[in-house]
Amino acid sequence: GENVEQHPSTLSVQEGDSAVIKCTYSDSASNYFPWYKQELGKGPQLIIDIRSNVGEKKDQRIAVTLNKTAKHFSLHITETQPEDSAVYFCAASRSPSYIPTFGRGTSLIVHP
Amino acid sequence: EAGVVQSPRYKIIEKKQPVAFWCNPISGHNTLYWYLQNLGQGPELLIRYENEEAVDDSQLPKDRFSAERLKGVDSTLKIQPAELGDSAVYLCASSSGQDEQYFGPGTRLTVT
């Protein structure tokens, strides 16, 4: 089955800095890579996703890159703000509605 | 439009007692998922429904867990009897066709 590794487990940055979270996956059949933000007491919320036919995708301050050959993908957040503080999960699956395998999460702390 | 609704939000029970969680998916979403999220980890699938049919329940501990989705809309997840190790957040998600999954806020279960 699929195995997703996520690093780092904790990331502390100053407001305005950039944050990068990296994930690797094992199943070459995976084609869909979503990123979720989970705030305390809430369920995961999809913030951006990328499919295997695209190498990079950007949405305002958030970008995701995918290297299918190396089986790794990354989340980049620029100009971080305190409200970006949350746990971020990467995931990999064969399609958006298929069962995703999640990473263990990264706790991002943005200090004002 | 309302998101995925779950109740209760919190539940504290003693071990060996039964407990039930309820989920109302987004209107029109035919696929419903139940996930288990342990502290510091990503969600893990327990069961997936396509309409009223359970199409993937291989990770559901069937000796104590059961689920149903009568009429293909609302769903209930039950544990009987609960064990200390069942303490976790139980997340419900739904999706439509090949679109992404939307998560509910979860039910935090504490077994004492």
Structural class of chain A: mainly beta
Distance between the termini of chain B: 37 Å
Strand content of chain B: over 45%
Low-confidence stretches of chain A: none
Principal-axis shape of chain B: globular
Helicity level of chain A = under 10%
N→C terminal distance of chain A:
41 Å
Averaged pLDDT of chain B: 94
- How would you classify the helix and strand content of chain B by structural class? mainly beta
Task: Give the uncertain stretches of chain B in residue-range form.
Answer: none
Oligomer: heterodimer
Helical segment tally of chain A?
Answer: 0
What is the helical fraction of chain B, as a range of percent? under 10%
Largest sheet of chain B: 7 strands, mixed
User: What is the percentage of strand-forming residues of chain A?
Assistant: over 45%
Protein chain pair with the most extensive contact, residues per chain: A-B, 21 and 24 residues
Using the alpha-carbon principal axes, give the shape of chain A. Answer: globular
Q: Main sheet of chain A, how many strands, which sense, barrel?
A: 6 strands, mixed
The gyration radius over C-alpha positions of chain B equals: 13 Å
Compressed to H and E, one letter per element, the order of chain B equals EEEEEEEEEEE
